[in-house]
Amino acid sequence: MTAPTRQRPRAQDLLPLARARLDRFLSDLAGLVAIDSGSYSPAGVNLVADWTAARLSALGFAVERVAPGKASGERTGDVLIGRRTGRLAARDGGRRILLAAHMDTVFADGTAATRPFSLQGRLAHGPGVSDDKGGLLAGLTALDILAEADVEEYAEIVFLATPDEEIGSPASRPVTERTARGAHFALALECARENGDLVIARKGVADFLLTVTGRAAHSGIEPERGANAALTAAHLVVALQALNGLWEDVTVNVGVVRAGTRTNIVCPEAELRVEIRSATTAGMTRARAAIEEAAARPAVAGTSVVVEQLDLCPPMEDTEVTHRMMARARSLGEELGLVLKATATGGVGDANIIAGVGVPVLDGLGPVGGSDHTPEEWLDTASVPERVALLAALVATLGDGRHE
Ligand SMILES: [Zn+2]
Protein backbone atom coordinates (compact mmCIF):
# COMPACT_ATOMS: atom_id res chain seq x y z
CA MET A 1 0.00 0.00 0.00
CA THR A 2 1.39 3.39 -1.01
CA ALA A 3 1.08 5.95 1.73
CA PRO A 4 0.25 9.43 0.49
CA THR A 5 3.33 11.56 0.77
CA ARG A 6 1.86 15.01 0.27
CA GLN A 7 1.19 17.07 3.34
CA ARG A 8 -2.50 17.64 3.97
CA PRO A 9 -3.20 21.39 4.38
CA ARG A 10 -4.21 22.54 7.83
CA ALA A 11 -7.70 23.89 8.35
CA GLN A 12 -6.34 27.30 9.24
CA ASP A 13 -4.42 27.40 5.94
CA LEU A 14 -7.70 26.92 4.09
CA LEU A 15 -9.43 29.73 5.99
CA PRO A 16 -7.82 32.62 4.05
CA LEU A 17 -8.90 30.94 0.82
CA ALA A 18 -12.47 30.80 2.13
CA ARG A 19 -12.31 34.43 3.28
CA ALA A 20 -11.13 35.50 -0.16
CA ARG A 21 -14.26 33.93 -1.63
CA LEU A 22 -16.83 35.54 0.67
CA ASP A 23 -17.80 38.36 -1.73
CA ARG A 24 -18.30 35.90 -4.55
CA PHE A 25 -20.24 33.59 -2.21
CA LEU A 26 -22.63 36.43 -1.35
CA SER A 27 -23.21 37.51 -4.93
CA ASP A 28 -23.72 33.89 -6.00
CA LEU A 29 -26.11 33.37 -3.09
CA ALA A 30 -28.10 36.44 -4.15
CA GLY A 31 -28.27 34.98 -7.65
CA LEU A 32 -29.47 31.58 -6.44
CA VAL A 33 -32.04 33.06 -4.06
CA ALA A 34 -33.41 35.14 -6.98
CA ILE A 35 -34.42 31.88 -8.72
CA ASP A 36 -37.80 30.53 -7.56
CA SER A 37 -37.08 26.83 -7.14
CA GLY A 38 -39.94 25.37 -5.16
CA SER A 39 -40.15 21.59 -5.29
CA TYR A 40 -43.13 21.89 -7.66
CA SER A 41 -41.36 24.39 -9.94
CA PRO A 42 -39.18 22.10 -12.07
CA ALA A 43 -38.15 24.92 -14.43
CA GLY A 44 -36.71 26.91 -11.53
CA VAL A 45 -35.03 23.90 -9.96
CA ASN A 46 -33.47 23.12 -13.34
CA LEU A 47 -32.07 26.67 -13.55
CA VAL A 48 -30.34 26.01 -10.23
CA ALA A 49 -29.17 22.68 -11.67
CA ASP A 50 -27.78 24.42 -14.79
CA TRP A 51 -25.84 26.83 -12.65
CA THR A 52 -24.56 24.12 -10.30
CA ALA A 53 -23.57 21.90 -13.22
CA ALA A 54 -21.53 24.72 -14.75
CA ARG A 55 -19.69 25.27 -11.47
CA LEU A 56 -18.97 21.57 -11.09
CA SER A 57 -17.75 21.24 -14.68
CA ALA A 58 -15.39 24.17 -14.16
CA LEU A 59 -13.97 22.30 -11.16
CA GLY A 60 -13.23 19.23 -13.25
CA PHE A 61 -16.31 17.22 -12.33
CA ALA A 62 -18.02 14.93 -14.80
CA VAL A 63 -21.66 15.93 -14.52
CA GLU A 64 -24.64 13.68 -15.04
CA ARG A 65 -28.28 14.82 -14.98
CA VAL A 66 -31.09 12.45 -14.29
CA ALA A 67 -34.67 13.47 -15.02
CA PRO A 68 -36.46 11.62 -12.27
CA GLY A 69 -39.85 11.61 -13.94
CA LYS A 70 -43.14 12.08 -12.19
CA ALA A 71 -43.39 11.55 -8.47
CA SER A 72 -46.83 11.38 -6.92
CA GLY A 73 -48.28 12.95 -10.07
CA GLU A 74 -46.03 16.00 -9.94
CA ARG A 75 -43.05 16.65 -12.15
CA THR A 76 -39.86 17.67 -10.39
CA GLY A 77 -36.55 19.04 -11.61
CA ASP A 78 -33.47 16.98 -12.44
CA VAL A 79 -31.10 15.27 -10.06
CA LEU A 80 -27.52 16.41 -10.56
CA ILE A 81 -24.54 14.18 -9.90
CA GLY A 82 -20.96 15.42 -10.26
CA ARG A 83 -17.99 13.07 -9.97
CA ARG A 84 -14.32 13.86 -9.72
CA THR A 85 -11.61 11.26 -9.37
CA GLY A 86 -8.74 12.07 -7.05
CA ARG A 87 -5.16 10.81 -7.22
CA LEU A 88 -5.33 8.37 -4.32
CA ALA A 89 -6.96 5.20 -5.55
CA ALA A 90 -9.31 3.33 -3.25
CA ARG A 91 -6.87 0.39 -3.16
CA ASP A 92 -4.24 2.77 -1.80
CA GLY A 93 -6.50 4.00 0.98
CA GLY A 94 -8.29 6.80 -0.86
CA ARG A 95 -11.91 7.31 0.12
CA ARG A 96 -15.09 8.06 -1.79
CA ILE A 97 -16.77 11.11 -0.27
CA LEU A 98 -20.35 12.06 -1.05
CA LEU A 99 -21.46 15.67 -0.63
CA ALA A 100 -25.23 16.14 -0.69
CA ALA A 101 -27.35 19.28 -0.97
CA HIS A 102 -30.79 20.07 -2.34
CA MET A 103 -31.83 22.65 -4.91
CA ASP A 104 -35.53 22.99 -4.10
CA THR A 105 -37.22 25.22 -1.53
CA VAL A 106 -40.62 25.19 0.17
CA PHE A 107 -41.58 28.50 -1.45
CA ALA A 108 -44.00 29.11 -4.31
CA ASP A 109 -43.18 30.91 -7.55
CA GLY A 110 -43.10 34.66 -7.05
CA THR A 111 -41.56 34.56 -3.58
CA ALA A 112 -38.13 35.60 -4.85
CA ALA A 113 -39.66 38.76 -6.33
CA THR A 114 -41.79 39.69 -3.32
CA ARG A 115 -39.10 38.89 -0.77
CA PRO A 116 -35.75 39.27 -2.56
CA PHE A 117 -32.31 38.52 -1.17
CA SER A 118 -31.25 41.09 1.39
CA LEU A 119 -28.38 41.66 3.76
CA GLN A 120 -29.12 43.13 7.17
CA GLY A 121 -25.90 43.44 9.10
CA ARG A 122 -24.36 40.00 9.06
CA LEU A 123 -27.61 38.18 8.30
CA ALA A 124 -28.72 37.34 4.79
CA HIS A 125 -32.44 36.79 4.12
CA GLY A 126 -34.50 35.45 1.24
CA PRO A 127 -36.28 32.24 0.22
CA GLY A 128 -33.93 29.29 0.60
CA VAL A 129 -31.01 31.44 1.75
CA SER A 130 -30.16 28.87 4.41
CA ASP A 131 -32.23 25.86 3.31
CA ASP A 132 -30.46 24.94 1.21
CA LYS A 133 -28.92 27.42 -1.19
CA GLY A 134 -26.36 28.49 1.39
CA GLY A 135 -25.46 24.84 1.97
CA LEU A 136 -25.23 24.04 -1.75
CA LEU A 137 -22.96 27.01 -2.30
CA ALA A 138 -20.81 26.14 0.73
CA GLY A 139 -20.20 22.74 -0.88
CA LEU A 140 -19.19 24.25 -4.22
CA THR A 141 -16.97 26.82 -2.52
CA ALA A 142 -15.24 24.15 -0.44
CA LEU A 143 -14.50 22.20 -3.64
CA ASP A 144 -13.12 25.36 -5.21
CA ILE A 145 -10.79 25.83 -2.24
CA LEU A 146 -9.59 22.23 -2.39
CA ALA A 147 -8.80 22.73 -6.08
CA GLU A 148 -6.80 25.87 -5.36
CA ALA A 149 -4.97 24.14 -2.48
CA ASP A 150 -4.24 21.26 -4.88
CA VAL A 151 -5.84 18.69 -2.57
CA GLU A 152 -6.60 15.55 -4.54
CA GLU A 153 -5.78 12.86 -2.02
CA TYR A 154 -9.07 11.05 -2.30
CA ALA A 155 -10.45 8.31 -4.49
CA GLU A 156 -13.50 10.24 -5.60
CA ILE A 157 -15.71 13.14 -4.63
CA VAL A 158 -19.35 12.80 -5.61
CA PHE A 159 -21.54 15.89 -5.45
CA LEU A 160 -25.26 15.18 -5.35
CA ALA A 161 -27.91 17.90 -5.70
CA THR A 162 -31.54 16.81 -5.41
CA PRO A 163 -34.68 18.58 -6.75
CA ASP A 164 -37.35 17.43 -4.28
CA GLU A 165 -35.97 17.13 -0.75
CA GLU A 166 -38.61 19.43 0.70
CA ILE A 167 -41.39 17.06 -0.35
CA GLY A 168 -39.62 13.97 0.98
CA SER A 169 -37.52 13.22 -2.16
CA PRO A 170 -40.11 10.93 -3.77
CA ALA A 171 -38.59 11.27 -7.24
CA SER A 172 -34.88 11.48 -6.43
CA ARG A 173 -34.80 8.79 -3.77
CA PRO A 174 -33.77 5.85 -6.02
CA VAL A 175 -31.11 8.04 -7.66
CA THR A 176 -29.79 9.11 -4.27
CA GLU A 177 -29.69 5.50 -3.08
CA ARG A 178 -27.70 4.26 -6.04
CA THR A 179 -25.41 7.29 -6.00
CA ALA A 180 -24.67 6.87 -2.29
CA ARG A 181 -23.87 3.16 -2.45
CA GLY A 182 -20.12 2.64 -2.34
CA ALA A 183 -19.35 5.97 -0.66
CA HIS A 184 -17.17 5.65 2.44
CA PHE A 185 -18.46 8.85 4.00
CA ALA A 186 -21.22 11.34 3.30
CA LEU A 187 -21.33 14.97 4.31
CA ALA A 188 -24.77 16.54 4.08
CA LEU A 189 -24.95 20.25 3.39
CA GLU A 190 -28.02 21.38 5.27
CA CYS A 191 -27.05 24.44 7.24
CA ALA A 192 -25.64 24.12 10.74
CA ARG A 193 -28.17 24.63 13.53
CA GLU A 194 -28.78 28.13 14.90
CA ASN A 195 -26.31 27.47 17.70
CA GLY A 196 -23.72 26.11 15.27
CA ASP A 197 -24.27 22.43 16.05
CA LEU A 198 -23.71 19.75 13.45
CA VAL A 199 -26.32 17.01 13.03
CA ILE A 200 -25.19 13.49 13.87
CA ALA A 201 -28.56 11.72 13.92
CA ARG A 202 -32.00 12.11 12.43
CA LYS A 203 -34.99 10.03 13.37
CA GLY A 204 -36.59 7.75 10.83
CA VAL A 205 -40.27 8.13 10.00
CA ALA A 206 -42.82 5.63 8.77
CA ASP A 207 -46.47 6.30 7.91
CA PHE A 208 -49.11 3.62 8.11
CA LEU A 209 -52.70 3.39 6.96
CA LEU A 210 -54.87 1.09 9.07
CA THR A 211 -58.14 0.18 7.40
CA VAL A 212 -60.79 -1.30 9.66
CA THR A 213 -63.60 -3.24 8.04
CA GLY A 214 -66.77 -4.04 10.01
CA ARG A 215 -70.32 -4.77 9.03
CA ALA A 216 -73.16 -2.31 8.51
CA ALA A 217 -76.53 -2.89 10.15
CA HIS A 218 -79.61 -0.85 11.06
CA SER A 219 -78.78 0.66 14.41
CA GLY A 220 -82.40 0.49 15.60
CA ILE A 221 -83.77 -2.72 14.17
CA GLU A 222 -80.88 -5.20 14.29
CA PRO A 223 -77.69 -3.67 15.67
CA GLU A 224 -76.51 -7.13 16.76
CA ARG A 225 -75.99 -8.01 13.11
CA GLY A 226 -73.42 -5.24 12.74
CA ALA A 227 -69.73 -5.08 13.65
CA ASN A 228 -68.68 -1.59 14.65
CA ALA A 229 -65.47 -0.59 12.90
CA ALA A 230 -65.37 2.74 14.75
CA LEU A 231 -65.18 0.95 18.09
CA THR A 232 -62.30 -1.22 16.91
CA ALA A 233 -60.62 1.94 15.63
CA ALA A 234 -61.12 3.64 18.98
CA HIS A 235 -59.46 0.75 20.81
CA LEU A 236 -56.61 0.92 18.32
CA VAL A 237 -56.14 4.64 18.99
CA VAL A 238 -55.79 3.93 22.70
CA ALA A 239 -53.50 0.94 22.17
CA LEU A 240 -51.21 2.66 19.69
CA GLN A 241 -50.92 5.87 21.68
CA ALA A 242 -50.02 3.71 24.70
CA LEU A 243 -46.89 2.57 22.84
CA ASN A 244 -45.41 5.99 23.59
CA GLY A 245 -43.01 5.73 26.48
CA LEU A 246 -42.55 1.98 26.04
CA TRP A 247 -39.25 2.42 24.22
CA GLU A 248 -36.95 5.32 24.82
CA ASP A 249 -36.36 6.14 21.17
CA VAL A 250 -39.78 5.57 19.63
CA THR A 251 -42.78 7.87 19.27
CA VAL A 252 -46.14 6.87 17.83
CA ASN A 253 -48.79 9.31 16.69
CA VAL A 254 -52.30 8.50 15.52
CA GLY A 255 -52.70 11.66 13.50
CA VAL A 256 -55.87 10.98 11.50
CA VAL A 257 -58.99 9.07 12.48
CA ARG A 258 -61.96 8.73 10.15
CA ALA A 259 -65.00 6.45 10.47
CA GLY A 260 -68.59 5.90 9.38
CA THR A 261 -71.18 7.91 7.50
CA ARG A 262 -74.46 8.14 9.45
CA THR A 263 -75.64 7.89 13.02
CA ASN A 264 -78.28 5.25 12.26
CA ILE A 265 -75.85 2.76 10.72
CA VAL A 266 -73.53 0.52 12.72
CA CYS A 267 -70.20 1.83 11.47
CA PRO A 268 -68.89 -0.45 8.68
CA GLU A 269 -65.49 1.09 8.03
CA ALA A 270 -62.83 3.24 9.63
CA GLU A 271 -59.30 4.31 8.96
CA LEU A 272 -56.37 5.51 11.02
CA ARG A 273 -53.25 7.20 9.79
CA VAL A 274 -50.35 6.55 12.10
CA GLU A 275 -46.81 7.84 12.14
CA ILE A 276 -43.87 6.30 13.97
CA ARG A 277 -40.52 7.95 14.52
CA SER A 278 -37.41 6.38 15.90
CA ALA A 279 -33.70 7.10 16.11
CA THR A 280 -32.89 3.47 15.32
CA THR A 281 -33.88 0.86 12.78
CA ALA A 282 -34.46 -1.53 15.66
CA GLY A 283 -36.96 0.93 17.16
CA MET A 284 -38.78 1.28 13.83
CA THR A 285 -39.03 -2.50 13.57
CA ARG A 286 -40.33 -2.87 17.14
CA ALA A 287 -42.99 -0.20 16.64
CA ARG A 288 -44.12 -1.68 13.33
CA ALA A 289 -44.44 -5.12 14.92
CA ALA A 290 -46.50 -3.64 17.76
CA ILE A 291 -48.88 -1.99 15.29
CA GLU A 292 -49.32 -5.23 13.39
CA GLU A 293 -49.90 -7.13 16.61
CA ALA A 294 -52.60 -4.69 17.76
CA ALA A 295 -54.23 -4.87 14.32
CA ALA A 296 -54.28 -8.66 14.42
CA ARG A 297 -56.50 -8.63 17.53
CA PRO A 298 -59.40 -6.24 16.76
CA ALA A 299 -61.48 -5.36 19.84
CA VAL A 300 -64.84 -5.96 18.15
CA ALA A 301 -65.77 -9.44 16.89
CA GLY A 302 -66.53 -9.40 13.18
CA THR A 303 -64.15 -6.53 12.38
CA SER A 304 -60.76 -6.87 10.73
CA VAL A 305 -57.81 -4.54 10.24
CA VAL A 306 -55.37 -4.26 7.34
CA VAL A 307 -52.07 -2.45 7.92
CA GLU A 308 -50.36 -0.78 4.99
CA GLN A 309 -47.05 1.05 5.19
CA LEU A 310 -47.40 4.19 3.09
CA ASP A 311 -43.96 5.64 3.48
CA LEU A 312 -40.65 4.87 5.11
CA CYS A 313 -37.73 7.18 5.65
CA PRO A 314 -34.98 5.28 7.46
CA PRO A 315 -33.28 6.78 10.51
CA MET A 316 -29.88 8.39 10.17
CA GLU A 317 -28.36 6.61 13.13
CA ASP A 318 -25.37 7.84 14.99
CA THR A 319 -22.80 5.10 14.82
CA GLU A 320 -19.22 4.52 15.82
CA VAL A 321 -18.12 5.81 12.41
CA THR A 322 -20.20 8.99 12.58
CA HIS A 323 -18.80 9.64 16.06
CA ARG A 324 -15.30 9.35 14.59
CA MET A 325 -16.29 11.72 11.78
CA MET A 326 -17.64 14.13 14.38
CA ALA A 327 -14.40 13.89 16.37
CA ARG A 328 -12.47 14.87 13.22
CA ALA A 329 -14.83 17.78 12.60
CA ARG A 330 -14.46 18.90 16.20
CA SER A 331 -10.67 18.96 16.09
CA LEU A 332 -10.60 20.72 12.70
CA GLY A 333 -13.11 23.18 14.14
CA GLU A 334 -10.75 23.87 17.03
CA GLU A 335 -8.06 24.81 14.54
CA LEU A 336 -10.53 27.37 13.17
CA GLY A 337 -11.61 28.65 16.56
CA LEU A 338 -14.97 26.87 16.42
CA VAL A 339 -16.42 24.84 19.27
CA LEU A 340 -18.50 22.21 17.50
CA LYS A 341 -21.13 20.04 19.08
CA ALA A 342 -23.29 17.28 17.64
CA THR A 343 -27.03 17.19 17.93
CA ALA A 344 -29.80 14.75 17.04
CA THR A 345 -33.05 15.87 15.46
CA GLY A 346 -36.47 14.48 14.60
CA GLY A 347 -36.57 16.16 11.18
CA VAL A 348 -35.76 14.05 8.13
CA GLY A 349 -33.82 14.81 4.97
CA ASP A 350 -31.78 13.26 2.18
CA ALA A 351 -29.21 12.32 4.83
CA ASN A 352 -31.70 9.70 6.08
CA ILE A 353 -31.89 8.14 2.62
CA ILE A 354 -28.09 8.05 2.37
CA ALA A 355 -27.80 6.53 5.85
CA GLY A 356 -30.45 4.01 4.82
CA VAL A 357 -28.04 2.37 2.35
CA GLY A 358 -25.39 2.04 5.04
CA VAL A 359 -23.21 5.10 4.39
CA PRO A 360 -22.17 7.04 7.51
CA VAL A 361 -23.39 10.65 7.32
CA LEU A 362 -22.64 13.84 9.15
CA ASP A 363 -25.09 16.66 8.43
CA GLY A 364 -25.30 20.37 9.11
CA LEU A 365 -22.09 21.18 7.26
CA GLY A 366 -23.43 24.33 5.62
CA PRO A 367 -23.05 27.79 7.15
CA VAL A 368 -25.03 28.68 10.28
CA GLY A 369 -28.67 29.49 9.55
CA GLY A 370 -32.18 29.19 10.89
CA SER A 371 -35.93 29.92 10.75
CA ASP A 372 -36.09 27.61 7.73
CA HIS A 373 -39.42 27.40 5.88
CA THR A 374 -40.47 30.85 7.17
CA PRO A 375 -40.20 34.40 5.81
CA GLU A 376 -37.64 35.09 8.57
CA GLU A 377 -35.19 32.48 7.24
CA TRP A 378 -31.64 33.73 7.75
CA LEU A 379 -28.04 32.82 7.05
CA ASP A 380 -25.19 34.13 9.18
CA THR A 381 -22.75 35.39 6.55
CA ALA A 382 -20.03 35.79 9.17
CA SER A 383 -20.06 32.02 9.64
CA VAL A 384 -19.41 31.33 5.96
CA PRO A 385 -15.58 31.40 5.80
CA GLU A 386 -15.07 29.16 8.86
CA ARG A 387 -17.76 26.68 7.81
CA VAL A 388 -16.49 26.48 4.24
CA ALA A 389 -12.93 25.97 5.49
CA LEU A 390 -14.19 23.32 7.93
CA LEU A 391 -15.99 21.48 5.15
CA ALA A 392 -12.96 21.60 2.85
CA ALA A 393 -10.67 20.40 5.65
CA LEU A 394 -13.07 17.60 6.51
CA VAL A 395 -13.20 16.39 2.90
CA ALA A 396 -9.39 16.47 2.77
CA THR A 397 -9.10 14.61 6.08
CA LEU A 398 -11.65 11.93 5.35
CA GLY A 399 -10.51 11.57 1.73
CA ASP A 400 -7.01 10.27 2.32
CA GLY A 401 -8.11 7.71 4.88
CA ARG A 402 -5.20 8.50 7.17
CA HIS A 403 -7.21 9.26 10.29
CA GLU A 404 -9.04 5.97 10.43
ZN1 LIG B 1 -33.15 21.51 3.58
List the helices and strands and how they pair.
Layout: H1 11-20, H2 22-33, H3 42-58, E1 62-66, E2 70-71, E3 74-75, E4 79-85, E5 96-102, H4 111-114, E6 118-120, E7 123-125, H5 133-148, E8 156-162, H6 173-180, E9 185-188, E10 191-192, E11 198-202, E12 204-213, H7 229-241, E13 250-259, E14 269-278, H8 281-296, E15 304-313, H9 320-335, E16 342-345, H10 350-356, E17 361-362, E18 366-370, E19 378-380, H11 384-399
Parallel strand pairs: 5-8, 5-9, 9-17, 10-18, 11-16
Antiparallel strand pairs: 1-4, 2-3, 4-8, 6-7, 7-19, 12-14, 12-15, 13-14, 18-19
Keywords: Hydrolase, Metal-binding, Zinc
Cofactor: Zn(2+)
Pfam families: M20_dimer (PF07687), Peptidase_M20 (PF01546)
Characteristics:
six-stranded mixed sheet; 33% helix; five-stranded mixed sheet; 2 domains; 25% strand; Alpha-Beta Plaits; 404 residues; Aminopeptidase; alpha/beta; 11 helices; binds zinc ion
